[in-house]
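Hey, I was hoping to borrow your eyes for a little while. I've been staring at a protein lately and its backbone has me curious. You're getting the sequence in one-letter code plus the fold written as tokens. Would you mind checking whether the tokens look sensible for this chain? Here's the protein in full, and shout if anything looks odd to you:
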Amino acid sequence: MLGISAAPGGHMTKRLLLTSAGTSAAENLTRSLRAGDTGMVTIGCHHDRFILKKSSCDRRHLVPRPGDVRFSDALRRLVDEQQIDLIIPTSDIDVGAVSDLRDDLPGRSFLPDHRVIWLC
């Protein structure tokens, strides 16, 4: 079960972080998630401010590019500050980067075992 936090009005809100926010894959996922559960907060991040601007997430954050030495600290800080319950990477590069960091991130990630990712 996802971690949840109380929202105004007493209902519970899931806080999801979607990587590569603003891309077609992330936008399709955001729409699908909202269709299934209107009580969630979507937070998007991307390294390109122009692509990020296209995101329909509730909140948007500019982060360094995956592979940049600053990416892991920025993602950890974002997960902590925004009280993220679940991280959903939406590109192959993001899957690899989040998988590498999964043991160091305070939120959960929706990924198969690290060995399976690198095998694929």
Observations:
- The first strand starts at residue 5 and ends at 6.
- The beta strands are 5-6, 12-19, 40-46, 59-62, 86-88, 108-109.
- Confidence is low (pLDDT under 50) at residues 1-11.
- The first helix runs from residue 24 to 36.
